[in-house]
């Protein structure tokens, strides 16, 4: 059994980070979002007494331990009780705190959906629900642990800001921005193996997409863990003479419609890439935007099809669904070829 | 102005009557409303809001105020008149009850109604909210208490027990849960639909200090609430208030038919007369 295979036996505890720093596409990375979550919040909390962190028996997985060690008086572990965690966070928010409530994305968004809507978004509480180990990054843990529906579910909740972290520096920027952002947020993190896209902490604005690579023939709109492989795909396409724009649509709600429509106008074709069910998520949001604006360009939603994924290590699953760099490049070619065929 | 104990009890009984009559009046505006689940906790509202809670209606956001979470949010129609009566807002605003765009719906909205400490309506959430508030109070060094009113039927919601477990674990001595044990849900007696008893022993097993009281006995309620241990790092406090759903109106008492209802014509006048002691 390889090191990577062995690491799949652990659900994100210390063993994963220390033994295996490779990403799904084989990139070696030490700066990984889930692992800076606790550390960055601990640093921010040194100067901001409003910050509290809650988790549901996953402090070792999301590294809330880094926060707990530094600010034990502002750390709450509720045990395996996600609904109680999110609603308690709302109660704390009503008393002036900014709670970050973190657990696996599948449990945060699905188990806690009503608590997020009713107790956080509806009363406008500044709760930050953090869903980590998102998508199918849990690999062979199976359907119960995959979070493929969270973006679709969260983005249909009114007054809820939905963002995805792209890499460690991006997550730092999001956490800093979140402190003064009004209302409730859902923050989606990967498993903690997302290779670096941003060499420094970027200057972000929530609701404004980042163009991480410019191009003229096609735009790939990606989010979260799929931004890096989208860039790899763009490299590969460049080798074939296809100039590809890559947009990091890290805010799913509210969507940056201007960035979408400009991409359609100036590159003529749009491919969305997300690590989640294509029904309801980023691709659906972009499709709605394009169609409602009358921008009828060649378009394809790429992600996990509307099915429960098979068992397998994450790297194998990404390849299976063509969500790695080569796979995305392949899907992009299909899109461009089919548009030529129909024009 | 100081009042004698006897005067205070008479005053609170009058305020409980006011809760009931206002509920009848507001339900007529809406055309339907929750009668019986309000009538069971009318004395609890009166004792808590007029004798127990530390409040300042001129400062609804006062950080050191006591909090009240109405987990059984469908009793809001009985709470609104109390908040208006205390001065949180102009009582005339209540006449918009349930009209399009009114702040006052069947369940309370904290963003639109001064004095409502948290929005509620979906059952089973309130105790978690209150636990979060109690924890926040401890973190910030405030000595306020958080009170949470639950229904006994509501105890079937699983999140209640997540919250009960956490409050016991964190020893939230500044948290007071009150179960309005009015015995009835929508479909019938709680004991038949999904038994909640023994409520006090179940909470005790989660580390709570428990009390049981007649929820319509104003002197007993006053004594119990005044005698709760100081808010500190002790066990959370549970008050099981044994009540009668629909209390105060003969046709509504322990009748499943009046969870939601509407009184029309002579029935409306009869019930008001009964509540006001004119019947």
UniProtKB/TrEMBL annotation, chain A:
Keywords: Thiamine pyrophosphate. SMART domains: Transket_pyr (SM00861). One of its GO terms (molecular function) is magnesium ion binding. Residues 31-196 form the Transketolase-like pyrimidine-binding domain. This is Transketolase. Belongs to the transketolase family. Pfam families: Transket_pyr, Transketolase_C. CDD domains: TPP_PYR_DXS_TK_like. It comes from the Bacteria. It comes from Pseudonocardia hierapolitana. Its cofactor is thiamine diphosphate. InterPro entries: PDH/Transketolase, THDP-binding, Transketo_C/PFOR_II, Transketolase-like_Pyr-bd, Transketolase_C.
UniProtKB/TrEMBL annotation, chain B:
Pfam families: Transketolase_N (PF00456). Gene3D superfamilies: 3.40.50.970. GO terms for molecular function: magnesium ion binding. Coiled coil: none annotated. Residues 17-263 form the Transketolase N-terminal domain. Its cofactor is thiamine diphosphate. It comes from the Bacteria. Keywords: Thiamine pyrophosphate. Belongs to the transketolase family. This is Transketolase. It comes from Pseudonocardia hierapolitana.
């Amino acid at each position: 059994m390889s090191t990577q295979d062995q690491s799949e036996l652990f659900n994100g505890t210390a063993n994963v980070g220390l033994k295996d720093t490779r990403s799904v596409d084989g990139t070696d990375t030490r700066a990984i979002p889930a692992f800076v979550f606790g550390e960055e919040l601990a640093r921010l909390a040194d100067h901001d007494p409003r910050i509290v962190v809650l988790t549901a028996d996953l402090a070792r997985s999301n590294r809330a331990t880094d926060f707990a060690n530094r600010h034990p008086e502002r750390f709450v572990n509720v045990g395996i009780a996600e609904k109680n965690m999110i609603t308690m966070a709302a109660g704390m928010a009503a008393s002036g705190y900014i709670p970050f409530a973190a657990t696996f994305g599948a449990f945060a968004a699905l188990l806690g959906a009503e608590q997020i809507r009713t107790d956080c978004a509806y009363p406008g509480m500044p709760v930050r629900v953090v869903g980590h180990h998102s998508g199918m990054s849990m690999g062979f843990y199976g359907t119960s642990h995959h979070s493929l529906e969270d973006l679709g579910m969260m983005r249909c909740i009114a007054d809820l800001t939905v963002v995805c972290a792209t890499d460690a520096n991006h997550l730092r920027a999001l956490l800093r921005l979140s402190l003064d952002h009004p209302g409730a947020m859902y923050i989606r993190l990967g498993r903690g193996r997302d290779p670096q896209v941003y060499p420094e902490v970027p200057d972000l604005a929530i609701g404004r997409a980042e163009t991480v690579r410019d191009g003229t023939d096609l735009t790939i709109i990606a989010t979260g863990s799929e931004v890096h492989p989208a860039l790899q795909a763009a490299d590969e396409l460049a080798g074939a003479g296809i100039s590809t724009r890559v947009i990091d649509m890290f805010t799913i709600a509210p969507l940056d419609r201007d960035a979408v429509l400009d991409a359609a106008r100036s590159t003529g074709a749009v491919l969305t890439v997300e690590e989640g069910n294509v029904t309801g998520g980023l691709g659906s949001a972009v499709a709605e935007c394009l169609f409602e604006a009358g921008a009828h360009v060649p378009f394809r939603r790429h992600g996990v099809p509307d099915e429960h994924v098979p068992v397998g290590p994450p790297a194998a699953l990404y390849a299976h669904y063509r969500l790695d760099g080569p796979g995305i490049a392949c899907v992009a070619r299909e899109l461009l070829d089919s548009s030529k065929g129909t024009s | 102005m100081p009042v004698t104990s006897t005067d205070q009890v008479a005053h609170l009984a009058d305020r409980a009557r006011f809760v009931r009559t206002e509920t009848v009046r507001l339900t007529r505006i809406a055309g339907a409303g929750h009668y019986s689940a309000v009538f069971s906790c009318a004395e609890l509202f009166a004792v808590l809001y007029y004798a127990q809670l530390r409040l300042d209606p001129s400062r609804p956001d006062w950080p050191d105020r006591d909090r009240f979470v109405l987990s059984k949010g469908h009793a809001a129609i009985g709470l609104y008149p109390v908040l208006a009566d205390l001065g949180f807002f102009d009582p005339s605003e209540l006449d918009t009850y349930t009209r399009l765009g009114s702040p006052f719906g069947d369940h309370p909205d904290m963003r639109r109604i001064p004095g409502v400490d948290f929005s509620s309506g979906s059952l089973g959430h309130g105790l978690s909210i209150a636990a979060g508030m109690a924890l926040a109070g401890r973190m910030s060094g405030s000595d306020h208490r958080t009170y949470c009113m639950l229904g006994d039927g509501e105890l079937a919601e699983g999140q209640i027990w997540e919250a009960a477990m956490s409050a016991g674990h964190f020893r939230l001595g500044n948290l007071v849960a009150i179960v309005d044990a009015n015995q009835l849900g929508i479909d019938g007696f709680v004991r038949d639909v999904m038994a909640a008893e023994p409520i006090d022993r179940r909470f005790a097993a989660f580390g709570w200090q428990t009390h049981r009281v007649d929820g319509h006995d104003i002197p007993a309620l006053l004594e119990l609430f005044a005698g709760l241990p100081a808010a500190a790092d002790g066990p959370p406090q549970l008050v099981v208030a044994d009540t009668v759903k629909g209390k105060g109106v003969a046709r509504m008492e322990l009748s499943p038919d009046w969870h939601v209802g509407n009184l029309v014509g002579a029935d409306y006048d009869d019930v008001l007369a009964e509540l006001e002691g004119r019947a």
